[in-house]
Design brief:
alpha/beta, Arc Repressor Mutant, subunit A, eight-stranded mixed beta sheet, six-stranded parallel beta sheet, 37 strands
């Protein structure tokens, strides 16, 4: 049985052509924590030798320097020379207990053949989780390896090359990158190490090491040079690196993103997890069409030499022909037969009889296809076991033939059989896409893909039913690619993918049509004429109405699609919020004054920045309302408000649940409560949301022994939902009704980081009847959640739209930085709705104070010197290596202070992304995990405790290797109290293994001196070093705002010299690129912009959406008074970056109205006065400009605005001094 395979590569800057990298120092990806055998490459790479021999053949460096680059597994994939490789045992250089003895073990010798790769499926050798032994027995490993390699057949199997997350293209997205492919020419089996018997015995006597392998975990695949190719990504990267123009560079990044093949298909991601993994035929075919789609787009770009693309396309065509041939019409015959016969025979017997049956059918019928076509009766003269089996087959022939069309695993066919039993064979055969709609599975992972179940996707149904006539020489029963059943399935996938990959909960019809056209199986689209008219026809049918919410947006003349399950997710949030909005309570003013008086003590050194009325409003409305939302930037006093509210609720004997999306935010609140001696209060529960969801039921309901299965099932469904499997929602909602929690108060901190699904699952666990207060805290200007939607932003939109401003407060106070300071101005510029001008940005940059300082650099050496200069300023006494200086800073106080200084960058990739700074600047080219190394956790790490899955270490947690070599994360130490020392020790061992294990293929724990802005969200630091080196579409308004609000003391803004002259313009352009604005949701209704909540329908049916309530009132009154006006006037925008709110004509004169919404903010006030100078001196229209601001007194706002309009119309506008010549307080 033929399989194909994935093979992981380390990134190589010369396209794996058998040479040393052209620039080893700049290839930070080869040694990245998500490379190929990352720990081994990091230990063994010799930059000095590679730099000396850069660009040379590996055979030459092997002869001259007796050195082979440790990435030799992949670097000769397209190489045409050979040499001998000597490879020491993986334990030989790990500085662990037995390393000196393993260093004496003779290294293995391999011939590094032309056009070859080495690889290994790391699932083969490890025992199952929970096993006492770490490895499988040697004889089992040998058997697994033979089975695995036997399915890679010469001239038939295709290998697909890919890079892990450490690559210069998809590293920021943490996605695998498909590189190229080639046909297997030969396979070389693994060798064995000649380890002394005594050493083997010694190791195998250790706990869990009884099966320690002596077989080398690597096999060699020789490739057919006539079929091997890699896509020309390097050529795109070279163009980007040479391009100096900002906008041209941006366009090149976008084009590279269009052709880069990210592995985002959920059914396929696990096939790339273990370095090498088998691929089924249909997955191989789908990947080959993705290659074709990429090269087709490259030709449109016309950036790369045409012959390169043409050469790749010719090879892709060859591979497609081969893949379709190997697939055949009935790829699922063997597995479907196995499942069909499993009712009559045991597994061991089936493994014997099925190959015999295949042989018998081929010998007697010529092929499986002819067997299905044959009307012959079964002859009784054959062997009895074959006779019995054939009779079963003949009886179920139609069913077997249908199932055999699909390239499914045994596990998947078992699930499909259950669906057939549920719906009936006739129904499933008539509409095979029903499999997609109803397929439920438990994720099954194994080295043997026949035992795996990663779910089913539409391409697996399409390839079976609609083969490509250019390659497939068979026909299938006619299935209409334009049928409503298939299009419903395809649109469902498009919407699911958009939710999981882009965060959209809905899409427009036009977007869906575009994505249908870009579906990788392009040969179907060539005949498929899906247009608006066809969808219009189907939108009226039940089959579409049952699956999608389809709504019209007449304002933009568009139709919006949303999965009904996604609508249900949003409905859970809307219903919960609606119920909490109905609750109100009486509040004693004395209670509020008590809180305020205590708080004044907390802010005694910042009283000049504190707005007492703002704090009074915060506490009054949070205690008065069932729902209250607190929004504000870092340093606005949000955390102090949370602590004060918790204290007040505890005094009132109310149970309080405090949730955070990150471990860091959780620690901040726990530490604040510890100072008040409240951290052990029985009625306070502080937890990350994930930790609560995974463990809460099993802990709180331990006594319900008769319903443990139900609790376990609910936990499993929760996990499925958080993994994006919305099909679990219906069962989850039924079960969860019996298991909700009854806190009186729920506070969610950093809510802006919580996505729709996570929030809906959490709300489902809380009883709204018992809940008195729901308080959501966050910052709507930060980066949106990693997940679906932007619920915090949408909720604020809804509250404003409905006039529920007393359920919301936006904290304007900046208790960290005076708004008139450079950093205060910066955060204000990027938090507002109004695009800042280059002049405003330049003024903020040039403001001289102790809160922001700019530095410039041109190369890594200069950047290192700048960082040394900053560390000396921060308090480092000794001017040494950066590693030593950071150590001194972190350990300079009584306790470890990892928040003292943090480097942040917009991206992971590039010379000055977090990866490059960590390796080449801080560690000066040497990746090492030694005492005093700062760390960051790159992925959530879970462990099992008390019978449930527990989030042990959260993505983004910062850690440190202490002097004794122990890996320290403060988050982990916090768990001991809840889970006990032994359970947490197991977690510590797992985390330590991520750092030290010699057999890891990647590291979830990376260097943490420099981290991305995304990783810094939810945290703040005394000194932030923001390294800004290049422009790309990745730089957004929210990213810059998040970066500018991370410092507690000072921002050190370190800018590449290439950006120096145009820095204000670069930052201004980034403002227009908003991730929050780009997301599409229907939570609390459709919205053109999440920051324009006030909608007004004018008399002429024009719909106006405006920023503020005052603007809405002005527009409403102008319309009621039949005065024609323009809103959002852009005539001065291009030249002066001014955009008055309104323009109207009266008495032959033009008037402009500008509402000044934040005149209580010093920075905003200063910005306005500079704008007014432009109106006055450069435009000369100051006498036509009318400004408004809100009065501090309680007034009739509408009446005041009406008076202003009447003054305009009667040419009697009042004259004032100060903010403008004609200013009205309303």
């Amino acid at each position: 049985m033929v399989n194909h395979a994935t093979v992981r590569f380390a990134w190589h800057d010369s396209k794996w052509n058998g040479t040393v990298c052209r620039d080893p120092e700049r290839n930070i990806y080869c040694t990245g924590s998500y490379s190929l055998l990352s720990p081994r490459i990091q230990r063994r790479i010799d930059f000095h030798k590679e730099q000396k021999h850069k660009g040379q053949k590996v055979s030459k460096i092997q002869k001259e320097a007796t050195y082979i680059p440790p990435c030799y597994w992949c670097l000769n994939a397209l190489g045409d020379s050979e040499c001998i490789v000597e490879d020491p045992h993986p334990f030989a250089d790990t500085e662990r207990r037995f390393s000196p003895e393993f260093a004496k073990v003779p290294p293995l010798k391999y011939n590094l053949n032309k056009f070859c790769v080495f690889s290994w499926n790391f699932k083969l050798g490890y025992a199952e989780k929970g096993s006492y032994q770490r490895y499988v027995p040697p004889e089992e490993l040998e058997d697994r390896t033979k089975q695995y390699l036997n399915k890679l057949e010469k001239g038939k199997s295709i290998t697909f090359f890919y890079a892990n997350y450490s690559n210069p293209i998809t590293a920021d997205h943490y996605r695998y990158l498909l590189l190229g492919a080639g046909v297997v020419r030969d396979v070389k089996e693994p060798q064995e190490y000649h380890i002394p018997e005594k050493l083997v015995e010694k190791i195998r006597s250790q706990r869990g090491m009884a099966n320690m392998p002596i077989t080398a975990w690597q096999f060699q695949i020789l490739l057919d040079p006539n079929t091997v190719f890699v896509l020309p990504y390097h050529e795109y990267l070279d163009l980007i690196n040479k391009e100096k123009d900002e906008s041209a560079s941006n366009e090149l990044w976008k084009k590279l993103d269009e052709v880069a093949i990210r592995i985002e298909e959920n059914t396929m991601i696990p096939n790339f997890k273990y370095v090498s993994m088998h691929l089924e035929h249909d997955k191989a075919i789908y990947l080959l069409y993705m290659f074709r789609q990429s090269t087709s787009q490259m030709k449109k770009h016309n950036l790369v030499e045409h012959s390169l693309i043409l050469g790749a396309e010719q090879k892709i065509d060859k591979l497609l022909a081969l893949a379709w041939k190997q697939r055949g019409r009935y790829p699922g015959f063997r597995n479907a037969l196995f499942v069909m016969l499993s009712h009559d025979f045991d597994k061991e017997y089936l493994n014997e009889i099925i190959p015999r049956m295949e042989k018998y059918i081929n010998e007697n019928y010529g092929s499986i296809a002819k067997f299905f076509e044959s009307p012959e009766e079964v002859k009784s003269s054959m062997p009895s076991d074959v006779l019995k089996t054939l009779r079963i087959l003949k009886k179920n022939k139609e069913r077997l033939e249908f199932l055999s069309l699909f390239d499914f695993s045994i596990t998947q066919f078992e699930n499909v059989e259950r669906l057939i039993d549920k719906f009936g064979f006739g129904t499933v055969k008539a509409n095979p896409y029903i499999i997609l709609e109803n397929y439920q599975f438990d994720f099954q992972d194994s080295w043997d893909i026949n035992e795996c179940d990663y779910g089913v996707s539409i391409y697996q149904i399409d390839i079976a039913l609609i083969p490509d006539p250019r390659y497939a020489d068979w026909e299938t029963p006619p299935y209409d690619a334009r049928s409503p059943e298939r299009l419903r399935a395809l649109i469902s996938k498009i919407l699911y993918d958009s939710a999981n990959q882009e965060g959209n909960s809905c899409l427009t019809r036009e977007e869906i049509l575009n994505r249908i056209q870009s579906y990788p199986l392009y040969y179907i689209n060539e005949k498929l004429k899906v247009d608006q008219n066809l969808l219009l026809q189907y939108e009226k049918q039940t089959i579409f109405k049952d699956k999608f919410l389809i709504i019209e947006n007449p304002q933009k003349n568009e139709v919006i699609y949303q999965l009904k399950r996604m609508r249900e997710i949003e409905g859970i949030i809307e219903e919960f919020i609606s119920r909490m909005l109905k609750k109100t309570y009486a509040v004693d003013p004395k209670t509020i004054e008590d809180i305020i008086n205590k708080e004044l003590g907390s802010f005694k050194d910042k009283l000049q920045f504190l707005d007492i009325n703002e704090r009074r409003s915060l506490y009054t409305n949070s205690l008065k309302n069932g729902l209250f939302v607190i929004s504000g930037k870092a340093g606005s006093g949000k955390t102090q408000a949370i602590i004060n509210l918790i204290t007040k609720f505890v005094e009132a004997k109310k149970s309080v649940f405090v949730f955070t999306p990150t471990g860091k935010a959780n620690l901040v609140i726990r530490n604040r409560l510890r100072k008040l001696n409240l951290h052990k209060a029985s009625n306070i529960r502080v937890s990350t949301i994930h930790r609560f969801l995974y463990r809460a039921l099993s802990e709180y309901y331990m006594g319900f022994t008769t319903r443990r299965a139900e609790i376990a099932r609910l936990g499993h469904l929760t996990e499925d939902l958080l993994d994006g499997k919305l099909e679990a929602l219906e069962e989850f909602r039924k079960l969860v009704k019996s298991w909700s929690f009854n806190p009186r108060v729920v506070i969610i901190d950093e809510t802006s980081m919580v996505d729709e699904i996570l929030l809906a699952v959490l709300f489902s666990m809380i009883n709204p009847e018992a809940l008195e207060h729901l308080i959501l805290v966050g910052d709507e200007r930060q980066l949106p959640p990693i997940g679906v939607g932007r619920p915090f932003v949408d909720l604020i939109f809804y509250l404003k739209q409905k006039g529920l401003e007393t359920n919301l407060i936006h904290l304007k106070s900046n208790l960290r930085f005076d708004p008139s300071t450079s950093l205060g101005m910066f955060s204000d510029l990027f938090s507002g709705q109004e695009e800042p001008s280059p002049k405003e940005i330049e003024d903020a940059l040039n403001r001289k104070d102790e809160f922001l300082e700019r530095y410039y650099f041109s190369n890594s050496k200069e950047l290192g010197n700048v960082i040394k200069q900053i560390l000396a300023q921060v308090g480092c006494q000794n001017f040494n290596s950066l590693f030593t200086m950071f150590t001194e800073i972190f350990e300079s106080e009584d306790k470890l202070n990892l928040d003292k200084v943090q480097i942040i960058t917009p991206r992971r990739i590039g010379d000055y992304g977090s990866m490059g700074i960590n390796r080449n600047v801080v560690l000066e080219g040497v990746i090492q995990y030694v005492p005093n190394t700062k760390l960051i956790c790159e992925e959530n790490i879970y462990f099992n405790a008390k019978g449930s899955r527990v989030l042990g270490l959260a993505n983004g947690s910062i850690g440190y290797i202490k002097n004794d070599g122990n890996v320290h994360f403060e988050d982990i130490d916090e768990l001991i109290e809840d889970y006990g020392y032994e359970n947490v020790q197991r977690l510590k061992y797992e985390v330590s293994s991520e750092v030290y294990s010699p057999l890891r293929t990647e590291r979830k724990i990376d260097l943490g001196y420099a981290i991305t802005v995304h990783k810094s969200q939810g945290s703040d630091f005394d000194h932030v070093i923001l390294v800004f080196s290049q422009v790309s579409p990745f730089i957004t308004r929210e990213l810059l705002y998040t970066a500018f609000t991370r410092p507690r003391t000072k921002l050190h803004f370190v800018v590449h010299n290439d950006l120096k002259d145009e820095l204000p313009l670069v930052l201004m352009r980034a403002y227009d690129n908003s991730l929050v604005e780009q997301r599409k949701t229907l939570l609390f209704g459709h919205k053109a912009s999440p920051f324009k909540p006030y909608k007004l329908t004018l008399k002429d049916k024009t719909i106006l959406e405006v920023d503020s309530k005052i603007e809405w009132i002005i527009a409403k009154l102008l319309d009621e008074m039949n005065i024609k006006f323009e809103y959002g006037v852009e005539e001065f925008l291009a030249s002066y970056h001014l955009k008055p709110d309104f323009k109207l004509h009266a008495n032959g004169k033009v008037y402009y109205i500008e509402h000044l919404g934040r005149m209580d903010n010093i920075g905003y006030r200063e910005r306005w006065l500079k704008k007014f100078e432009i109106y006055k001196n450069q435009l000369g229209i100051a006498d036509s400009l009318i400004t408004t601001s809100e009065s501090e007194e309680i007034t009739d706002v509408e009446e005041n605005i009406k008076k202003m309009i009447e003054d305009i119309m009667s040419n009697k506008v009042q004259k004032t001094e100060g903010f403008s010549y004609h200013h009205y307080e309303i």
